[in-house]
Amino acid sequence: MSTTATTARGSTPVDVTPRRPGLVLFMVCVAIFMLMLDATVVSAALADIRTDFDASIDGLQWVVDAYSIPLAGLMLTFATLGDRFGRRRMFVAGMLVFTGASLALTLASGIVQLDVLRVVQSIGAAMLFATALPLLSVAFPEAHARAKAIGVYGAVMAGATVLGPVIGGALVTQFGWRSIFTVNVPIGIAITVLALLKMPETASTPDRRADWLGSLLLTGGLVAGVFALTRSHALGWTSGTVISLFVIAVVSLTAFLVWQTRAKHPLFDISMAKKPGFTGTAVVSVAHMATLMAAATYLSLFLMGALGYTPLQMGLRLLPISVCAMVAAGVTPIFAKRVSIGVGLTFTMAMVTAGMYLLGNFGHDDSWTHFLPGMIVGGLGIGALTAVNQAASLTFASQENAGMSTATFGTLRQVGMAMGIAGLGAVFGHVAEDKAQSGLATVPGIGAVPQDLKRQFVDQVGSGAGHQVVEAVPARFHDAVPALTRVADNASIDALNALANLGVIIGGAAVVVAAVAFAIDRRRVVRPKPDQEPASV
Questions:
Q1: Per-residue pLDDT reduced to its tens digit, 127-158
Q2: How far is CA 219 from CA 72, 212, 215, 250, 537, in A?
Q3: Which end of the chain has fewer surrounding CB within 10 Å, N or C?
Q4: How far, in Å, CA of 96 to CA of 91, rounded?
Q5: Angle CA(148)–CA(410)–CA(463) in degrees, nearest 5?
């Protein structure tokens, strides 16, 4: 099948014959695997990064959020630029930026430098994310073949997201934390060369322009909001700094939405948001990343800090999430045809929420197997939701605007990840520090310990160190180590349970909102004639 693109007035005709669609799928999936892996692989390295750079929990949160926020803020812009200049060109440019940043990350000498380079890496990731699904949309023009390709894409995306701790654990244990970035370099070079030689170009629409003001408002609002969340547990929710940052976030994001109604070449087609089905899909896109996916970062810290596992041992214990997610993402497209997207997304979000609930209520005598039911149920939910969400993202726009539509939901997922990491981290840090502070008061002879050492103990427990913090206790206080270990473990357990409870609340609210939105959307669908198929979301 051959097509010639003339999708918009002023478009340059470009041959978009889907030559070797399987090869295009392979290149896109390898790229997405790398990008999603780098969003979560750092969870296995956080403990070592904290030790090497003496980083606080705020600094560790930014190792993750410095990747998620620019990715969310710039994805729509690069989707527009990809539609304008050609998605193959954007794909290759993104791979070069991502690979170069990965190489630089292996040489980082401090937490600030690490965070800055993660920003650069995320810019390359935004270029790749923005073009991935649109490239598949062109390579697989037939609906049946496209559904299969999206199923493979969803399985890879889900698998990479939750395989991060496993692969990261193996790399960190054997080669150190810098290896999680080094491994990207040869793969990135290989995919860049392959794309230059074999990937066909898609249509270019030179009359479209990038909305730089929209990008600035969106990114600025996200940065302010996430920074407010990360600082809330240190400064307090009523702090002038925190309140000011939240105000800046609200004003910037509101201005972004207003500007999108007036911009000549908007990042985001506001007309899509008028559909209740879009609202339901958007809520689920944010919520599943803000709950189970964000919580996985702190669960990995808990397994290493409180339960004492090595990075590799931790990763292997999180493997049930990976396996279940990949299986569910692979088989979901087969069953998804029998239910509407709305039902599928609501049900899978409920599964993710149930997984969060089962992860909570960890007892002081429990082992890591306590988390197995939650990981299985949540992993199945994540995998199935990812597959349905990818299909849903292509239903709100025409093929020529596929980049905008898929990037919108990609943006929302990254917003969810960034907000979840910051929000859940704020709760984890606050509860852990508060419990560690009160627990110290019960330790015999604690009055003889200098105040700065007690403050360091509390800070390290709040950053997820668990009982590993006792390794730094001076020799003269070794008699207190058993009591300090109990304090650190109790604080970590209470913090993890509080985090899980918050995740359940967020997930439950998302299920209710999505169910209502999709119910309203179904009522708005005009009843089809006998010879027509109903369209539903």
A1: 898 888 778 878 887 767 776 787 777 777 76
A2: 7, 10, 6, 12, 29
A3: N
A4: 9
A5: 120
